[in-house]
Structure formats: C-alpha cells, structure tokens
Amino acid sequence: MLKTALKPQWIAGLVLALVVSAVFVLLGKWQMDNSASAPPPLTQTETPVELTEHFVPEKAMYGTEADQVITMTGSFVPHTDVFIHPRLHGGPEGAEGYWLVSAFQVDGAPNGEVMPVVRGWTASTTQTDPAPRGDLHITGRLLPAEGPSPEGIQHTEDGTVLANLASSELINLWDVRSYAGYVAAFDVVTMGGPGSAANGQEVGAKAAGGELEPVLVGPQPQETTYNWMNIFYAIEWVVFAGFAIFLWWRFLRDDYLRSQDEDELDRQWAEEWKAAELERRRTEALEAKRKAIEEYERFYGASTGPTSVHQPQENQ
Question: What is the tally of helices (H) and strands (E) in the chain?
Fold first, then answer.
C-alpha cells in the first residue's frame, strides 16, 4: 500500500485532507472556546459604573451585566412603596421579614423609566421609613428581576405585598416604564447642590434613627457556565476532521485493492495465455509433422518410406 500512497495524486489528496481536518479542528476549538461563559472578574463588578452607561431599559439582563455595582442619580417616585415577602436578613439563619422597594426616577433614562430600588429590610410592614425626597445619588448592586409569583399582588392595610420582585408586576402596579431588574441600595445620599449643607448626607437605611436595616448583597459566586450545544458542535467538528482523514485512507485502500485485483487478473490471463499458446504451438507442430510425413510418403512411396504415423509398427 505504501507504493500506492506515494503516487502524486494520493500525496496531494493527503495534503488536502490534512488541510480540511485542520480547518475542522479550528472550528471545533472555536466552538469549545465559546461554550464557556465566565462571569466578570470581581475587580470589574465591584468598581461602580454609571447605570445609564452599563444597562438599558426594556432589555433582558445578561450575566455579564448583572451583579455590577452601579451609581445613578434621580429621585424616588412618591407613593410607590411595596413590600417583598418573605426575605431573610442576616444570612440563612436570619430573621424573616420584608424588603421595602420603591420606584426611583433615573436621570438620563431614555423614556423616563424607573428602577426598582430595595431601600432596606424590615421585620414588619408597620416599621418603615418614608422614601427620601429631592435629588439623590444611589450606589447599589444591579440584579436581575425575579419571575412573577402565582400568589400575585396582595393589598393590605399597611401596604402592597408581593412574593417576588418581578418587574412585570411592578410595571402594572406603578403604571410606568421600568428597567428589567432592580438595585439593592448600599448608599443613598442627597445632592443638595454646590455649597449645600445637606449635600452628600446619607438618607438611606444606613442613616441613624431609621426603622429600615440595610440590605447588603455581596457578589455572586464566580462560576463558569457551559453551553452544551457548543460542546456538541465542537465534538462534531472533531469527528468531521477524523472523517476527512478516513475518507482519504478509504479511497487509497480502494485504489490499492483495485490494483491488486488488476494484477491478479493480469497474472491469471498470462497463465491462461501461456497454456493456450503452448497448446496452439503443439498442435501446429504435430500438424506440420503430419504434413511432412504425408509429403514424404507421396514422393517416395509408402512401401519404401519410413513407417507412416498412421500405421502401427509390426512386431518383430
């Protein structure tokens, strides 16, 4: 088979198969590289960025956009307080209570969208703080909205209670455009203008004398997720690469076997031709000998000539 493989056409075919296989392997590597979705590094998520530059409203939040510490300016919309229950405070073994969420009118939002802001935690709906008024600067963590709850919206004497912090439910409740997410506020400070004594004053859950306790959401666990569809595609490309080499070997093997069959047919034909040719020559030789004897007998006579090939010799 080596002799067949060294033919120019099969050397060219091998080069072509290797090039195709290399392309398929590179495509498989590209699919494998795209299968892993690594979260942003903590140095990126913990560096505050402007909300309007990081995330746009009426758009699904991707993993690379969530968990980011953001800043935004604006003011709270009056009479938009809602409670989210149940929410634990102080870890898995902490007390069960409520998140107090209010609509925050974001400066620079494209169409006047609001951002749901978790202002703090409370053990009871009767222990709350009114939303701060005026121009405010908020620093907090941007998180994806939750799905709506089958329990829906409950209206109580102390306020409206929801089971999940779902943007779809808040939009219907507030009747305003909203970002598809929410912000857990770390700091809420006033913006009283240059020279104002109230400028930079903490007025959120961290302020002294309030009923609310701060909701500090830490960075989410850094886990790399994998898209199995991309992994399957990568495996397919590797299989295609091996199949290209296999096709070259199969065609080479077929050519080799075909040449072997042709050589065997040539050998059989040569043997049969030799046997037929030998028989033909023998027949011609006997025929020539017979004619020669007939000519000799005709010329000298049968009685004086040598014994005919057709007559048996007499016993002595």
Answer: 6, 11
